Request: fold
Amino acid sequence: MKLWPAVLLVCSCAASAALLQQKPEIPDRSWRQHQQQSELLRRSDQQHLQHELQQAGLKQALPAVYDKGFGRSAPLPPHQLESAEAQRIAVNILSFQTPSGGWSKRTNVWSSPRQTGQQFGVEPNYVPTFDNDATVIQLHWLAAYYPQAAPQLQSQIQHAVQKGITLVLQAQYPNGGFAQTYPLRGGYHDAVTFNDNVMVQLLTLLHQVATEPQFAFVDPSLKQQAEQQFAFGVQLLLKTQLRLKGKLTIWASQYDPVQLLPIKARAYELPALISSESAAVVLMLMQRVQPSDAVIASVEAAVAWFQQKQIRDTQMIRSDKSVQFVQQKGAKPLWARFYDLDRQEPLFVDRDGRIVSSMAGLSIERQWGYGWYQSNAAQVLNVYPEWKKRIKRQKKQTTDLMRRTGLGGD
Reply:
């Protein structure tokens, strides 16, 4: 398996051409070790399943069950975690953890335990994965249930959570990024992935492991490593914020893992700026990161971009035949999901890779099957003023302290 395909399709627009002129990083020993570790884990998962098939006398693996009910959400609210149902669900979740330490997406891990010889997931290229909240949601659920579990089950949960956290730590690239799926699968799955909030979710998890009480049972050495690798990932966020036409903007959907250049994923996901996931990055920087000069500059630039690109007083209405935009004063602002890297204008691409001028030019299936306009960035603009005030207060406190201690000069 190749870690990076020989051809990674990069946007041919002028902005990306300028980016390509930068000197790429050269993979060193740490990258080769990362690839070798990935391959060992991938083979371990495969060999485990093959061993089960031999034990059970099966010629092929039993299919996993598609998750039709819970989607990306946990099946029980917090107030029901003390119930017998919660204990049953915890056992089921544990049974679907892969030997490498993760879980698969779109797979029902809640309703019944995994059988011997059953697939760990419904999609082979996502066993396990971080896509669609997989692995992260199971780790959070188990950590939330841990205080209510009986001692023997607590021990199993502790082992499983620490194994899952270890997988996340192992998955981080030597430059601080995360792929969509780990162990690595090749193709766009290996890109440093912001799409579907993969980067933000994994970095947030590491920060929570290091600092929050629900992960108090985690080994201190893992907590320390999570704190260090969170900080390392933040540096990657700052490094990948795109500077176009001389100005910092926001982030792309996914990047070449070595050169850190925007690349395509599926046919309708061309190299592009991405609004909602960039909003999640900015919120994390404001809420979980100490405001260094670099972080402040990053947030300020992204906020300015969101302010410039917002569509105000407009509501999107979909029907079976069309999409309409109507004026509605006070409506939540909208942003296109994607913006091209040249003009930074909304980008719409049909399933076959055909670029069209507006959402109305897409096939009805793509109009309905994808969130081409979203409002997630509104939260950034809502919390920004208070964050700005907090930064000013902190700077004033620092200046006052330096003056009192004689470190601030005349």
Summary: The longest helix spans residues 29-56. The first strand starts at residue 192 and ends at 193.
